[in-house]
Amino acid sequence: MVVEIDRTDQKILEVIQHDGRITNQQLAQQINLSNAPCWRRLRKLEDSGVIDRYVAILNPDVVGLNAMAIIQFSLTDHSDDCISEVDQFIAESDEIVDCYTLTGATDYMIRVIGRDILSIEQFIMKKLLALGSIKSTNSSFILRQKKYTTALPVKHL
Q1: How far apart are CA 133 and CA 88, in angstroms?
Q2: Which of 36, 60, 66, 110 has the most CB atoms around it within 10 Å of its CB?
Q3: What fold does the segment set 7-47 form as a domain?
């Protein structure tokens, strides 16, 4: 279900994607709306599922997670059991911060984060490849993250 979003809703979403802790009064001032209508619109966006949740985004360098890698892998087969095993592994692995299923030469792409290169190597060798359903992998270590955002381009809706 796609929710209709007008220009005022877009403004609200642009602001809160960059500061989820902004007060309703500050938000209303930034988007030139009075407090009560601003609060009602925000509540509607939350209740409709447009706003999924509020989170704190941690700085990986400050907490000592200094290595990231992109790992693409293919499955030995595409049976329900094989896919379920991999999907459960992905859901339970804290090191995996993003996961995508793909078309083309590989089946999955994951972004993994760890303390250092060794920790990511151990994740690949002792956890990922220990799954019986992984046929092949291709890993690339990320040298520097040039852009990272959780904000969606709502002004294009």
Answers
A1: 12
A2: 110
A3: Arc Repressor Mutant, subunit A (1.10.10)
* Amino acid 156: pLDDT: 83
The CATH T-level fold of domain 67-141 is Alpha-Beta Plaits (3.30.70)
What integer pLDDT is reported at residue 155 of this predicted model? Answer: 87
Positions of CATH 1.10.10.10 in the chain: 7-47
Q: How far apart are CA 108 and CA 89, in angstroms?
A: 13
Tokens of 125: 């060798």
| Residues with pLDDT less than 50, the chain | none
